[in-house]
Amino acid sequence: MKFVNIKLFDNSVSTEEKRFFYLIALVWGHFPILHFLEALSNRVVGPLVTLILFALLWTVTIFGAMGVIAKRLKSASVIVLFLILFIYGFNYILFPQNIDALNYNAGPFFLSALPCFILGSVVQVRKGIDFLYYISLLSILAQYSFSFVYGNNQILADEGEGGDQLTAAYNLLPHVLLTIYYFIKKRNWVPGLLSILGVILLISFGSRGPILCLLIFVFLTVFFTMRERKYSPVKYLYFVLICLGLLVLFSQAWQFIIEAILSSQNMSDRLAVKLMEGGFLESDDRNEIKLLLIKKLSEYPIMGYGVAGDRLVIGSIESGYAHNLIYEMLFSFGYVFGGGLLIVITIQIFKGLKYYSGDEKYFVLVLISCGFIGLLFSGTYLNSKWFFFLMGVCSVAKENFILERIVYKIQS
Q: Quick check: helix, strand or coil at residue 124?
């Protein structure tokens, strides 16, 4: 794929499917591109006009995608959707003390996270992954432009929404990961250059979780790539050892280079310094939260504290969550039901890795890194669109695999 010869869709994509992918593109590029445009529009034409314009954009795009959604949405996905709705609604009755927290999270859960389960269960990634890749390139460039001109995400901070560094880092993460995959796949200078820029931006935000997600994604991607190209496991082990050796041997040099780059662009070098000083994995506040949740869970180990119950125990409806998917699930639903949900989630992820291949498998790795591994370090599943997108994509992995085999046999 040459940068000057842009091909957005697979040849088999119909006009109706392209309309569906426009909706996927809006979701995929919401942060930072669409959100930055919204913030700029608020300043240029005012909040009211911006609200009308973006409401029209979303409405037209959603209606254009309804044909594909209606055709591909399976009954099993609908049942799961209604089951999730029932569980959330039943928590109002079973845990009335959580009403304020449930109401606070209802908006992002029902309007952002849960619809992504539907989109994930009907999307055929391989047909439009190139389109998503180009959006990711633009997202990295947009983030760099605003970080360079305004300082780290300052324009969003001024708008009072999504302006903190952690949010910005996790919003940029899927775009950086997909670009890295295209660099490994194509070995082209364009994704290579944008990958480096994306990594520098992630480091400049000063958040550890996205960097850990990135490292895990790179190792998994290289592992699967080497296995597909019939490299021996020993060579993969050599690759890991060489990378670790270079990091250790030239740690001072890396620190000097990263600090120089970040300082020249007026970006924060807090994470780079912390990494080299050995405090990268330390988080006393998160450890205290986990110890508190474990202690409280021993009082109600079977039922748990209900959806969003961790907010009440920690003492903050807005940000007082577990910051770890495993702890949040167990605390919300108890050891039995919560543990069962974690097993189901794990099975779905392995099913996705087993039945998908090619671009789709690596896109699943991107979603795993952002929507699952990311939730082990920070965030909550109640507003994580990539977690539910991942669950949707993986839930239909086997069915899509069987369908593709049938189509292949018919065509051959």
A: coil
pLDDT of residue 352: 95
| CB of 25 closer than 8 Å to CB of 131 | yes
Assigned token pair, 378: 């920070």
The count of structural domains within the chain is 1
pLDDT on residue 275: 53
Ranges of H-type helices in 123-207: 129-150, 154-159, 165-186, 189-204
CA torsion 236-241-243-244 (nearest 10°) is 140
For residue 374, being part of any structural domain is answered with: yes
Both tokens of 367, joined, read 């979603």
Q: Which single residue is written with the structure tokens 């003390």? A: 97
Helical (H) or strand (E) element with 386: helix 385-395
Q: How far apart are CA 119 and CA 80, in angstroms?
A: 14
Q: What is the pTM of this model?
A: 0.88
Residue 401 lies in a domain: yes
Sort 175 into a burial class: Cβ within 10 Å, 0-12 / 13-18 / 19+. buried
Which residue blocks in 232-324 are alpha helix, DSSP H? 233-249, 251-264, 270-277, 284-297, 309-314
Whether residue 127 lies inside any domain: the answer is no
pLDDT digits over 186-230, tens only?
A: 888 999 999 999 998 888 887 788 998 998 999 889 888 887 877
Domain around 103: 76-122+283-412
- The reply to whether 229 falls in a domain is no
Residue 50 CB neighbour total at 10 angstroms:
18
Q: How confident is the model at residue 249 (pLDDT cuts 50, 70, 90)?
A: low
Distance CA 204, CA 197 (A): 11
Q: Tokens 């999307």 sit at which residue?
A: 123
